[in-house]
Amino acid sequence: MRTVALLTTLSAACAGEEAAQLTLPVRVDASQLAPVTNDLGWTVTLTQVRLVASSLELTIAGEAHASASPLTDLLGFFLGRARAHPGHLADGDVAGELLGPTLIDWFAPGELGFATLFAGDYEGANLRLALADTTHGLAESDPLVGHGAYLAGEASRDGRTVRFEARLALPDPAVIVGLPFSLSAGPNTRDTLGLALTALDPVEGDTLFDGLDFGPLADLEPTADTPLTLDGPANNRLRRAFFSHDFFNITTSETR
Amino acid sequence: MLLSAIGVAQSRAEQPAPEGPDEVAPQRTRITRGPGFASRIGEAALALTRPRTAEEALRLAPGVVVVQHGAEGKAHQLYLRGFDALHGADLEVELEGVRLNEAANVHATGYFDLALVPIAVLSDVRLEKGPFSLDQGLFGTAGTARYRLGVPQDRRGLELGYELGTTNRHRLSLVLSPEDSPSDESFLGGELVFDDGFGERRAVSRLAIAARVAPPPTGPDSLSLLMALGLARFELPGLVADADLEAGLVDFHGAYDDLSFGESDRVLGLMRHAHERDTLHIETVIHAGWRGLLLRENFTGLLLEPTRGDARRQTESRSHAGLGSKAFLTLSPLTLELHAGLRVDTLEQAVEQVDDLNRRLALARTLSAELVETWLAPGLRLELDALYASVGLRLVHLAHDTTAPDSTLAALPRLDLGLHQGPWTFRLAYGRGARPPDTRAALTVSDAVELGARLRVDRLEATLVGFFTAVGRESVLDHASGQSIALDDTRRLGLELQLVLAPIDPLRLRLDLTLSDARYDRSGRPVAGVPPLVASLQAEVDAAPWRLFLRALAVSSRPLPHGATGAGLFDLTLGAQWRSGPLVVALTVDNLLDLDQRVGVYHFASRWDPTSPPSSLPRLHFAAGPPLTARLTLELRP
Predict the structure, then answer these.
(1) Which residue of A has its CA nearest to B304?
(2) Which end of chain B is more exposed for a tag (fewer CB within 10 A), N or C?
């Protein structure tokens, strides 16, 4: 009976417990939005970029990496090795998030709220998008309404300047997967997270506007007073580039 | 002598069984095995503990945790030796020599259920931990469970049984076996079960029938035919989030979704031929079967599809056929052995998103495949009075004919050394196991080492085993995607202690303790869900006409991802049996302390409250075990 009592006590002492969580502030980071020159020589300066995010997910790599143990490597050297297939968790495990919906405006940067995270080594993020509507604080006439993102700016080359705007349809699936993000989060972490947008891919050196020749496009719509509306193939090209993880990243800075 | 009568005996492989009521099943083969410390759950233990299903019989094996996160009829989730063996990914399960694990099953790789096994004709279950025997095949990375059917001599004739349970359980059983049969070979057995189950969404209706015909042997040759049929229809409760329980959204034994259910049908036929001469033994099993599986489940609620819900329907139709043969040529003290076989599985499966009326909304994936598995395993055994050695190599070739045909060959070496010295037995074993992770022709391999010692004296048997296993890739069942996911390399290090003792007549005790540390190589983090400690104590009193048993099981809290921990478990089971002439009355009480049991613990995101934000953050979930329940069984035995 002593053993039973011991086991009962042991079991009772082993109650489940949720993982420890921490909260970190998240803001819009516009510090990387500088003019860029695309592959056709147009220098592009953005003046508006807005979208509605349904959530920002922060991911850790989990255990989905391929590596071999020393023992299996050694045995495999002599015996040959049957390998398993790669893991499916390319997107990582979601271990932190900022829930929306949230209107994100890189030209009116501010606090987005607080993200809730489990402790862990974060290596990526996913930005989930929503179709913008008036419930997100937008006027019915707002060009973002009914779309996934709205961009406006100026493109200049050889003394000629073209104002433009683009209304980008919501991608399917409505998520940008794999934003660069690196943070080792623990109980004492005090960082502020920033959702940054850049027009220059810091890894490959290409720009958000590569392939867009604004001059001929403007010549097709020669109304000087209104900005050029990027549609058709130009819109598709910009949409494909914008809704990729190449031009977004999560920054960290010490919370003041 | 006393020890051998204990319900869960630790017998020496297939060597002539010790005397005792639990060891009545005759041996069909005189081929011996090494000193492996296998667990044998015999007919007497089964009759006393009264498992509801054949899978539950594994609960009697030391260090094994059997979790039902659905309802009776669905495959169980198994934990042993530091493995979360899921629904069978790491535990090979054989019925009469035919593997029941299904590669590339639509729900989880290695999925098996035993709905086709009537408990009344379950003769014994033998659990070998680790992949050390030459005849252990795919999925045996953590071990192999071998189920055998039969009716012992003292129960031959006509046997009728009726079980009544507090969950409105009704179980009718019938066993018919010729009294003059020289062995347990020929029988007809069946059972019909209706049970509302505990809590919500756990009702089951199932039928299991098995029959074997074994004509008297003609000279050195013997032949038997076995047919087994299982039909199961069951509800499925899903899992409960701790946070929702605290918020009053769902009861502890409740279910969110009142539409989930499952169907499992299976038929298996096999013919066994044995040829036995002085020095030569050849046994061949030819089998064919079909199974249908349908599971409609929703583990994540409204997380992925906020309006339509995340319910999915998994269906599979699979036929399989194969031939396996093993030959032993004894040139004392050497024995040459050769195992060879072929198995072909042809399957059609689909995963669909469905709505509240179970109508298809979208087709998530389909698969039509033919899986061909062949094996050849030569080996050599040396058996002396004090020494046993076995070495062999199992070659497995796996070919998949899908949209991308592929094949692979794996070499699985096995080594088993034993030394008998007085009351002591020592064992050192190494083996490489393998599991096919999915429909691709690839194998995850495990390398396992075991070092153990056993002491047998008059009233005590003590076994201490240390084990180490390195796995090429871990496999987890992702509830959100409904797929088994391959993860990083893992390793397991553990210790098992088993004590079987008979301090005073008629009391017998069995204590076992398993410590295991399962971790990912790269990160050093623990493998989720695997309990670091499993302990049980079983006391049994056999004082005719009474037999009593009390079993306590303790499972430590279990590590989960991100530093979360799942609750521990403590369970008391009580059994009593009284016999007078042909009448047997048995009472089984589960969860004697009526504790809220979280038998399975998980950590994933779900959303069941439509007014809550669609958070993707994982949270604690559990599968509830039964509350205090009782079953009364009446049997008329010959």
Answers:
(1) A173
(2) N
